[in-house]
Write a structure and sequence with these properties.
The complex is a heterodimer. Chain A is an all-alpha fold. Chain A has one domain: MetI-like (MetI-like fold, Orthogonal Bundle). Chain A is built from 15 helices and no strands. The longest helix of chain A has 33 residues. Chain A is globular and about 70 Å long. Chain B is mainly α. Chain B folds into 2 domains: 74 residues, no CATH class; 223 residues, Orthogonal Bundle (MetI-like fold), CATH 1.10.3720.10. Chain B contains 17 helices and no strands. The longest helix of chain B has 36 residues. The N terminus of chain B is likely disordered. The chains are: A mainly alpha, B mainly alpha. Chains A and B meet through helix 1, helix 2, helix 4, helix 5 and helix 6 of A and helix 1, helix 2, helix 3, helix 5 and helix 6 of B.
Chain lengths: 313, 306
């Protein structure tokens, strides 16, 4: 609160005072200080986040063979490429199946963990979180074995349930689910932890008030708690969709085990075209397309949802 | 707890029964979930103690007929003249400097953005948020293309520098300094004659130890586990970090199938499994030791408004 008031006061001061000097700047030596503090990070950010984007954008406008300026030619080549379109289809399918599934399941688990019932929930949260700490390389390797009936930890359970023809191993139709399962297993626990932490941090007065007004468990969850944690939910959606759009580690490592095509996702396509065909300008165009789609999605969601604002503005 | 207290106490016995039932149902759901999340990790540990034959014929969640962990360890360490040691060393060379750089630059930028008002501040803040929303894997190919131009490919810096620009770290530090670090402390220190850098170094940094620990842990785990960027940047075998080297080993075997041994592949699937277990150990240790910081950090990194 104090911070907020100070910043509002100094903003008002700027508008009023002719000299435009604010409290912090009126002290000698404070004009330079913020730049000293922030520039190391922003130099790195410009060199390795903004820079690569601009460089790729510039590259994507030039021909691979002649180096001449081709405008949007590379983009139309990429978008007309059969493999790239297939990869886009795979990702699109994952976006509208995996992302909603992931987010709903994460929210449901978080509400269960946040509720009153059940024993050992602290331990459960810890164990669900554990896969998030593992390298994607290791989790993909261990799942490849757990898709195999002979070595899977799920075989005994499935046998007990009467299922003997185990899991998704090796068929093209079930491949997306094999990959999605690894994504869910690896990442969902982290979001459960984030969601339960934000549920636990909700102001108890509001919850109490709703209870006194007669809200039951369901309406309390759906009408009060869910809207209150909306900013975190939105961020989860953005993060999951971003992860799916740029998927590469899991399908790349499963290439041998599950016969994944070398250009299965757009990112794999970009990798393949640059390392197998040395068509770096086409790879740049594909990368720019991915960046464009993921950032437009994120920004639209943030702006349209209206739940997100910079903290002291 | 609150729900329990606000319930009427008239039907005590009935209510207790219902609560017991709810406890049992929820606990059962959690047990099933935990089996799904943890059984494969336990399996990975158990499998690294087995022979390849035992892997497919002995119970998945119990030890094999003999304890082969040390043999598997020696075998994977001996693979390709001990390349596993080189990968481990590379992982440390890439991870440690980038963690230090990330912590220093994040603390500075978070503090500068939260505690000073200067022209362009809002734009820079929006830039941080924008970078936060872009998936890092979407940037790997552009970073590689730029790195190729700058001669950073197949050098340690090609991984270290891009991994050190962490919008996430800045955001966590910014949130901390904005909400939990009082501006009045700064003003009091200024009156006492401290300059801006003394205030930062002697007051701000010591008070932010918790949040910097969070940034350290999250960056360490993120960079240690990172696959795609080093995969693009380091194509030479002796420059790869562990996840990339292990990934290359894995890509040459048919994971999850007994066929690889029959085909007489140079790499045994036991090497891949034992390697996967070894790569996981450091992050699991970090995870268990400092789990409190993880949750707090993930939350403060994701709390964007409000």
């Amino acid at each position: 609160m104090v911070t907020r008031n100070t910043s509002v006061a100094s903003d008002a001061g700027t508008r009023v005072s002719v000299a435009g000097r604010r409290t912090s700047r009126s002290i000698p030596g404070t004009r330079l200080a913020p730049w000293v503090f922030i520039s190391p990070f922003f130099i790195l950010l410009f060199a390795f986040t903004i820079g690569p984007m601009l460089y790729s954008l510039w590259m994507s406008l030039q021909s691979d063979r002649t180096g001449a300026f081709v405008g949007l030619g590379n983009y139309s080549t990429v978008l007309q490429d059969t493999d790239f379109r297939a990869a886009g289809g795979v990702i699109w399918q994952a976006v509208y199946t995996l992302a909603p599934f992931f987010c709903i399941v994460a929210a449901v688990i978080a509400f269960i963990v946040d509720g009153n019932a059940g024993w050992g929930k602290g331990l459960a949260k810890l164990l669900m979180f554990l896969p998030f700490a593992m390298p994607a390389t290791a989790s993909t390797i261990l799942w490849a074995f757990n898709y195999s009936p002979d070595s899977s930890v799920f075989s005994p359970v499935l046998h007990w349930m009467g299922v003997t023809n185990v899991l998704w191993f090796g068929t093209p139709t079930t491949l997306p689910y094999a990959i999605m399962n690894i994504v869910v297993w690896q990442n969902i626990g982290a979001w459960v932890v984030v969601l339960t932490a934000s549920l636990a941090g909700l102001p108890s007065e509001i919850i109490e008030m709703a209870r006194i007004e007669g809200a039951g468990w369901l309406s309390l969850t759906l009408r009060i708690k869910l809207p209150l944690i909306a900013p975190v939910l939105i961020l989860m959606v953005i993060s999951v969709v971003g992860y799916v759009l740029t998927l590469i580690t899991e399908p790349y490592l499963l290439q041998q085990a599950l016969q994944v095509p070398a250009t299965y996702t757009p990112n794999m396509w970009a990798y393949n075209i640059s390392f197998q065909s040395s068509a770096f300008n086409l790879a740049a165009a594909a990368a720019i397309l991915l960046l464009l789609v993921s950032s437009v999605f994120a920004i639209t969601l943030v702006l349209r949802s209206g739940v997100y604002r910079l903290q002291d503005r | 707890m609150q729900a329990i207290q606000t319930k009427p106490r008239m039907h005590g016995a009935q209510y207790r029964r219902r609560r017991l039932a709810a406890n049992i149902v929820v606990t059962a759901i959690l047990v099933v979930l935990c089996y799904y999340f943890i059984a494969p990790v336990v399996w990975l540990f158990l499998s690294s103690t087995k022979t390849q034959e035992d892997l497919f014929v002995t119970p998945a969640l119990w030890f094999g007929s003999s304890f082969q962990f040390w043999n598997n360890l020696v075998h994977v360490m001996g693979y390709n003249d001990g390349i596993f040691w080189v990968w481990t060393r590379n992982s440390l060379i890439y991870t440690v400097p980038s963690v230090i750089l990330t912590v220093l630059t994040s603390a500075g930028a978070g503090y500068g953005l939260a505690k000073y008002h200067f022209p362009g501040r809002t734009v820079l803040l929006l830039l941080v948020v924008f970078s936060l929303l872009i998936p890092t894997t979407a940037l790997a190919v552009p970073i590689y293309l730029e790195g190729a131009k700058l001669g950073l490919v197949n050098t340690p810096l090609g991984v270290i520098l891009p991994s050190s620009a962490s919008a996430f770290g800045v955001w966590i530090c910014y949130n901390f300094f904005n909400h939990q670090f009082n501006t009045e402390i700064i003003q009091a220190a200024r009156i006492d004659g401290a300059n801006e850098y003394q205030i930062f170094g002697r007051i701000a940094i010591p008070s932010a130890v918790g949040v910097l620990a969070t940034v350290t842990i999250l960056t360490f785990v993120g960079n240690w586990n990172n696959f795609f960027l080093p995969f693009l940047m380091e194509s030479r075998d002796d420059l790869m970090p562990l996840p990339v080297g292990l990934g290359n080993m894995a890509a040459q075997t048919t994971l999850g199938s007994q066929a690889s041994s029959a085909a007489g592949s140079a790499i045994s699937i036991m090497d891949v499994l034992t390697g996967a277990f070894l790569v996981t150990i450091p992050v699991i240790v970090v995870f268990v030791l400092v789990r409190r910081y993880w949750a707090a950090g993930l939350l403060s990194g994701s709390l964007q408004g409000q």
